[in-house]
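Batch manifest, entry 17 of 40.
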Amino acid sequence: MKKSLIKTGICLLALTSCKESLLAPVEKPPQVESIMSAAALTDYMTVTLKNVKSNKFLEVGGNPVQNAKFKDNGLLQQWETSMSGSEVDLWQKWHLIYQTTAGGIKYYHIRSLHSGKLIDVPSGTNVSGTVMQQYAAFPLLADQQLWRLVEVTTGQYRIVNKGNGLALSVAGGATGNGAQVIQETSVNDTKQYWTITAIAADTYRDDEVVRFFYRNSASLGSAAFDQGNSIPLTWGANNGKVLWVTQDAWDGSQVQSNGMFNCGNFHSYSNSVFIQPSKTNWNPNSAPNMTINNSTSGKPKQIFNIQPGTSWTWSGPGIEIGDKVWVQCGEGNGLTATGQSFYRLTQSSGTQWVAERMMPNGFAGQTAISYSTGLVKPGDGYVYAFGSEAVFFGYGSYIHVARFPESNPLQWQYYNGSTWTSTPVAGETSKITDARGSNSVAYLNGKYILMTMDQGFNCDPDRSVYISTSSSPTGPFSTQIKVYTIKEYFKEQYTRYYTPVIHPEFVNGRNELLLTYSVNFSACGLDGCEGAYLDPYYYRLKGIRVPYSKIGL
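Output type: structure tokens
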């Protein structure tokens, strides 16, 4: 299991003041709310649902420190306003998503922002009194997940299932916290009336993306891994496909019948690549691993060979140029980085590609700046490579930038704060911005986007994800905006988290940016095993979507 590479920072005696300056909080604008009449409902909106009788909110039940609010079959309940600091918890926020019209009636999915799952009638039952649940969206529209909104008075609605005609209700008309939300025959009772209030669009978990990484088939290859950079392809037979590049990966053959890994098993390979057939196909069984025919370790699914005298090669961001894909890789031994390289993959219409290790100018022995933060091709003839330099004892980073012409990927130029030079320059004078401990840079809508968060191996108290933007690869970047707080737990403690990545190619028609981060088989001070097993959930990517409007895109 991967541990962090914590480098000694330069802020030895002034650590506290340095970190406070770097991590200054950003105030959020006040939340905009309005009670919605039927005429004002739109096809896609973010809302709260408050029961009229109890004046309490619909939410997903279960203990958050057991990750229960993320899971399929999580039962629905009501609760008073649930807050983390000044923010309403996402399990009390919902999307109304128009899906279809039948008989002149509009039907919606109702999706939890916290879990990305839908309000669902268990097994589609028509039994009155059944407690409602959340569940993953079915591949095809299912009546048990479709709801019509019947306005009984301005802003108040009965929410009725398409499949069985029963209405959402608070069991027994109870007014206390934790009362279950059930389905019942419609009656004129405010226990079945819900106030729909529109609120500001917010970041949410993309459950379809999360489930894409549940790869338990031995025939596929990578079953659990960290990092997860994506590279969209346009060349030849691969046009429309996407490469997913991982670091340490367990193979599907290691998954036991209970869906777990045996405790004590180590990952199968230090890196891997698998091929998604299209940007909209999120079926994990459709995305096979890439292989190579020149493996130095007898592991053809390990695409980037481990070099003599080292113990790992961790692949990072990549970019397609013509029929080639270029991927930055870090190399090291134990917990020490020894250098980095730039691999050239030659595309094939199949799954076996050719991988060649290259060394651009300035790469030999370069460990101060790791150019693993992002590769961006904005269309000006250059590719911009972003790197992170660890400072402040791993709590922060300087972000640096280099570039190379698309016509010559081995001829790098490095920005020194004012001009481009032939060798990298570390330190504060050459940085383009400050960041937290773990970072990603991408490009969309004419802006360079920085995703940054604390390095979660360090038991940091701030578990938030931040975004800032710039119109230039050399900055300046805007003030960082908090867009999400990670609420993943392991043995009821915060799990470790790291390796953020931005995926701008996955547009969904709703102006929402896809981000991922990794979690790990441990929490601070806790062993990764749960009895005899390791749960792959804790070595898989988690996907979230951020509205463009929240970050100025």
